[in-house]
Specification:
Elements lengths: L3 E3 L2 E3 L2 H14 L2 H24 L3 H20 L3 H28 L2 H27 L24 E3 L5 E3 L2
Helix pairs in contact: 2-3, 2-5, 3-4, 4-5
């Protein structure tokens, strides 16, 4: 089913979304999935920003809810046992982002919206760096944690990430 226009953003058939997600979860590397989720949350935040400017309250609300759902999902997927301190840092980061999204619901603050978008872009770039660095490792070398240069990522960015045996992303220091 093709997308439908609702307000200033597109609404897609949920069945098609689930099928696409299911296919991607089996074919797309975990780090690339994270980058794609960040792309989605950034897109929803940008659309919510436009809805604030245009005083489209319902659109703003729906878009912020969708952005929040992605952030909460990213937080729920953290492996605290394997991830240690980095998982805790990411958990706190996602909590902070989600609390600020909630605050935007109340305040309609463009400045806070811009700040959240900026931080999400920085973290997205850190995960993109991890994703592209993992892809460049030769298949014959053992997988080792990859370091994200401090200059390329915010302080809360993952220091290293690698898929573990069961396919979930393991983040380690």
């Amino acid at each position: 089913m093709p997308p439908m226009q609702q307000g200033s953003y597109m609404v897609f058939d949920r069945t098609a979304q689930y099928q696409a997600y299911n296919l991607a979860s089996h074919t797309v590397p975990k780090t690339k999935q994270i980058v794609m989720l960040y792309d989605g949350v950034i897109r929803f935040m940008q659309q919510a920003r436009e809805a604030i400017i245009q005083n489209k309250i319902e659109d703003r609300f729906n878009l912020l809810v969708r952005a929040s759902e992605i952030v909460v999902s990213l937080q729920a997927c953290l492996d605290h046992e394997s991830g240690g301190d980095i998982a805790r840092i990411l958990h706190d980061y996602y909590t902070s982002i989600d609390m600020r999204i909630l605050s935007i619901h109340r305040s309609n603050s463009l400045e806070m919206c811009d700040s959240v978008i900026s931080e999400l872009r920085e973290m997205r770039e850190a995960w993109h760096h991890v994703d592209t660095t993992i892809d460049k490792q030769p298949a014959t070398t053992p997988k080792r944690p990859l370091e994200v240069p401090a200059a390329d990522a915010p302080a809360a960015a993952p220091a290293a990430a690698s898929p573990n045996q069961n396919g979930s992303l393991q983040v380690s220091a």
